[in-house]
Here is the input.
Amino acid sequence: MTQTAPSPADNQRTAGEFETLAPSPRELMKRRARNHPGLIIGMGLILMFCIAGIFAPWLAPHDPYDQNLANRLADPVWGPKGSWEHIFGTDALGRDVLSRLMYGARLSLLISFTAAVIAGVIGVVLGIAGGYFGGRVDAVVVYLINVKLALPVILVALSIAAITGGSILILILTLGFLTWDRYAVVVRSLTQQMREQEFILASLSAGATHTRIIFRDILPNLINQIIVVASLDMAIIILIEAALSFLGLGVRPPTPSWGLMVSEARSVMFFKPHLIMIPGLAIFLLVIAINMAGDGVRDVTSPEGRS
Amino acid sequence: MANFFVRRLMIALLVAFTVSVIGFSLLRLSGDLASILAGENATTEDIERISKAYGLDRPWIVQYWDWITKALRGDLGHSLFTHEPVTELILNRIGVTATLAFSSLLFGLAIAIPLGVLAAVKPNTWIDRSALFVSVSGQATPNFWMALMLIYAFGVWWRQAIVFGVKLSEISIFGFQLTGLPISGSATWLHFVMPVLTLGTSIMPSIMRLTRTGMLDVLSSDYIRTARAKGLPSRSVLFKHALRNAILPIVSLAAVQLGFLLGGSVIVESIFALNGLGYLAFQSITRIDFPVVQSILVFLACTYILLTLISDLINAKLDPRVRLS
Amino acid sequence: MNAQDEAVIDVANLSVDISVPAGQLHAVSDISFSVGPGKTLCLVGESGCGKTITSLALMRLLPRSARLSATHIRFDGRDLSKISEKEMAALRGNRLGMIFQDPMTSLNPVYRIGDQLEEVYLRHRGGPRAKARERAHFLLEKVGIINPGQRLTQYPHQLSGGLRQRMMIAMMLMCEPRMLIADEPTTALDVTVQVQILNLLRELQQEFNTAMILITHNLGVVARMADHVAVMYAGRIVEQGTAEQVFRQPAHPYTRGLLECIPRHGQSAHHDKLGSIPGIVPSLVGKIEGCSFRNRCLYVHDGCQSGAIAMQQAISGQNYRCLLAPHEVSGASIAKAENMA
Here is the structure.
C-alpha cells in the first residue's frame, strides 16, 4: 500500500464528479410537456376555440340569429362575390356563418364540458365503489356497467330527445348519463390495482378510515387518468351532439349548433359545399385538439406507455 | 370453465332483462304517452280513446308483462303507422343493417390490423406517425360529414372531374366503367361502397391503436426475446408468436364495435337512404311509434349482449390461461 | 485460458455503445475472453455493469439503438460480429442457446410446452414431427421433469417457476448447442430450487461438454459453478482469471471490496463492521478518462485520473486492470470460497 493513498472518507462526497443529482418527477413531467408537440398544438387549438366561444358575444361580427333574406347564400371571402363583411359567407337564411360558428363553439364546449363532468362524477363514484369495496358492491357496479354498455347510445338519446323536446339541459343530462361507462371501467380497474398495493395496507394498519383512504390515497392517483378519459369523453360527446342535431333531434333551430349547420346546408350542398365543409371542419378540429391534448396528458404523466 | 360460462350467462340474462325494462319505459318517461300521440289539438276524449286503444291506461307493470310475454313468443306488436307486425318489419330490414355492419367491420379490420402491426414494427418512423395521424383523423371525423363529403366526391365531383386531361367517369377497369357511385338506395353492392367507407373509417382508428399498442407491448416482452433466441425467422416471431398474443383484446374490441355498428348506423342509413333497422328506428322515433322503437332498442341490446358472450367464448378458445383456470 | 483453437468462443475487444438522448452510452468497453468446451465462465458484477448487454451482444439480440463493435467474436468457425442476421438466426437455438432470468415471463403463454420445444428442433433440423417430440420427451426427462408426457401437453402457466426454468433449459438443449449462455438463471427462483437448477446445469454441461457463460451478481453462485471468472465494473472487465486465482488472491480493489462485503463466519456485530463500497457507479455516457472505479477506490492516486488503464498480471496469475503494481495487491483477503460452497 502506498503511503500517499487518501483515506476512504475523502471519497464520500454527495455529488462527485461523476454523479448528477436527478431532477424531480415534477420537473421531468414539465420538461416532457414542453417537448410534446401534440400536447402543445392540442392545447393551443382548444384555447382558440375557448376564446371564440367565451367571448363570442363580443368578438362575433354579427348576430347569429339575424336573418337577411336579401343576402342569402353569400359567397365566402375567397369566393367570386365574397367580401370581408361575411368572411365565411351566409347561410340559406342570410345569417353570418362565422358568427354562428363562434356561438356554436360556445354551445359545443358548454355541452361537452358539463356532460363530461356529470358522466365523470357518476363513473368515478361507481368505479371507486366497485374497485375498492369489491364483493357485492362490485357485482352491482359491474352489472350497471354492462347494462349501460348494452344500450344503443344514439337511439336512446334520440328517443329521449323526441319525447322531451329540444331542451339543452335535458340533452346535457342525457349525454352525461350515456357516457359514464368508460370512467367507471378505468377507475374501477385502477382502484383494484391500488387496493392490492402496500401503501393502502399501511394506511389501514395506521387506523385510517375508508373515506380517508379514498380521498387521500386513491383519488389523487387517479386524477391523471380521469383527465385523459374526460378528454376522450368530451370529444365523443361533441360528436354525438353534432349527430343528434344533424338528425334534427339535438339542439333545435334557430340555436347555432355545428351539426345543425351542416344539416341545414345539406339542400344546397352541391353548389355551396363550403357551407358543409366549414362547420364540419370546426367539429373535426375541436375534436382532434381535445384528443391530442388528452393523449399528450397521458404521455406526459405516464411515460412508460411510450415505446 | 363451464362454471364460468354459466355465471356469464346468468349475468347476461339479468342485463337483458334490465335492458328490456329500460327500452320499454324509455318512451313512457315523459309521463303521458297517450297525450303525445294524440297531438297538440287533442281533446280529453281523444286522449282517453287513444289510451284505451293501446292499453296505455293499464298499470305500467301490466303493460310490461303483457309485452314481454308476447315478445318472448315472437309477437312484438304492431306498428302504429303501418300496422304491420313489428317482427316482420325488423326481419325485413335486418339484412341491410347486418350487411352494412359486417362489411364495415371487415373493411375496418382489413385496414386497421396491418397498419397497426406495421406501426408497431417500425415505431417512431414516418410509417408509425402517418398511421397515428390517420387514426386520429378518423376518430375526429363526424360520421355524417364524412358521408356527405363522400357523396359530394363520388356522386357529384367524380362525374364531371377531369384529371390530367382524362375524364374520370369514362375510365374502365376490366370492362367495368367507373361512372361514380350511387348516392341512395340499397339495390346493388355499389350502393354499399360509400356507407361502408363511412362506417369503416369510424371504427378503424380504435382497432388500429389497440393493435399497435398491443403489438408494441408484446414485441418487448420476454417470450418474444426467447423466440428470437431460438433463432426463429422474424416472420414467425411476428405472426405466430407476437400477433397471436396481441389479437386477444382485439377480438373483444371487434365484438364491441360490431355491436356499436349495428346500433349506430342510424345516420349513415338515413343519409344514404338504406332501408335498414337504424333508419326504421329513426323514423319510428320521430313518429313516436312506440311498439317499433321499444322492440328495436331491446333487440339491438340483446344482440350486443350475445356478441359479447360470443367474444368471451372466442377469447377462452384463444387464451389457454382463461380456459384452464 | 485455453489455447485459441480449443476455445468454443473467443471474444476480442467487444464494445457496445447505445444512443441515448444525452449522447453515447458506453455499456460495454473492450471486453475479451474465451471459454473452452465443458468449462464455465462466470461474468460477475453489480446491476448495470454490462454483463447482460455482453450476453445479448454475443447472441446479437441487442436493442435497435445499440451498436456492437469487436475485433472478432469467433464461434463455430464464424465471426459472430460480422455475419448477417440470417446466418445468426440459423445459429441461435441451434449452436448456441440462451436462458433468461425470469421463467415466468419468458415463455409464450398461448402455446403448449411440447409445441414450443418441438418448434426449435423443427426450425433447425426439420421434420418429422415425431422425431422432435421424441427428443423433447427425452430432454424433459434429462432435466428432471417427472411425467414428461403429460407436461408436454400443458401450458406454461400450469408449471411452477422451477419447472419452467427446467423447461427453458430443455428447450435450449434441443439442438445440442456447443455453448449455453445463462443470464441469472436462478435469481427469480426460490432458494431451494436455485441449488437444484445449478446442479442440473453442471450435470448437463459435463454430459454434453457444453461451454457455458454464466451471468450472476451472486458470488455464491460463482463459487459453486465457475471454472473462470471475469469481474465486470462499469462496462469493463477489471479482473479475469480462474476461480481459484480470483477468490484466493483478489487483485483489483473492486474485487477485494466485493469479497469484503460478504459476511464471514465468525464475525460479530460488536467488533466487526460489514464491508461496503462507498459511492455509486459513474455515468457511462460520454468519453471515459482514467479508471472508472477511482471515485470509490481506497487506493486512488493522481495517475488514476487519466489515460487508459491496461491489464496487468497478478502474482497468482490472473489479469487485473489497475495501476497498482502486482506486489502491492498481494496478501489480501482470505478465500471466501470455503464459506460459500
